[in-house]
Write a structure and sequence with these properties.
14% of the residues lie in helices and 35% in strands. With 208 residues, it is mainly beta.
């Protein structure tokens, strides 16, 4: 579940904060909706992912799923040690990347939207998007409120928006890309007891 994943992220970053290995890191680059992250395209293999994002022994997470359900067959988490940031997730089906999730300021969209952009900036950049609520995803790590997503399935991009207590507004914590024109779900699927709801109007909680 999203909450458990966020807790693991905090533990991983805490464990690696003092470890400054000389691991290679990809150059800063562009997130291209529906296409690529730093030049690595959807449809790439695991080997191609590792060529762009060299692995960190004992810190990256590699989760396999043999159930053949709607969830990814494999989920790989590359931790951005140099930036002390969560990093990049790659989701695989049949050995190919079908969704990537960026959680580091190392990468941004060509239109200027980046990690910690405001929800208003995202909506202006993608006015045809739809707001969704990941019910049951709230925790202290994300500001104590459930996560909201602004999703533009036509372009193949989604933005995870957490509640920032200091600014009292929602900011981007993740940028996900997937094949344009396909259905989107955070982490590739929703696991109970969490649920996924489209917010039809701004009066529905928790839009702020």
């Amino acid at each position: 579940m999203k909450q458990n994943r966020l807790i693991r992220i905090v533990v991983l970053i805490s464990c690696t904060f003092l470890w400054r290995a000389n691991a290679q890191t990809p150059a800063s680059g562009i997130v291209s909706p529906g296409k690529s992250v730093a030049g690595l395209r959807l449809g790439s293999t695991f080997s191609e992912f590792q060529a762009t994002f060299p692995p960190h022994a004992n810190t990256d997470e590699d989760v396999q799923n043999s159930l053949r359900n709607r969830c990814p067959d494999r989920s790989y988490h590359w931790l951005d040690i140099d930036r002390n940031a969560t990093g990049v997730y790659a989701l695989f089906k049949d050995g190919k990347i079908y969704q990537m999730s960026v959680h580091t300021p190392r990468f941004a969209l060509s239109n200027g939207v980046h990690i910690d952009s405001t929800a208003d900036e995202v909506r202006r950049a993608y006015p045809k998007g739809q707001e969704h609520w990941l019910v049951g995803s709230g925790s202290a790590v994300v500001g104590g409120k459930d996560l909201i997503y602004w999703v533009d399935e036509a372009d193949g991009v989604a933005f995870e928006l957490y509640w920032n207590k200091k600014t009292a507004r929602r900011l981007v914590s993740g940028i996900d890309i997937f094949a344009a024109g396909t259905a989107y779900r955070p982490e590739g699927c929703i696991s109970p007891p969490q649920s996924w709801k489209e917010l039809k109007s701004p009066s529905q909680p928790p839009t702020k």
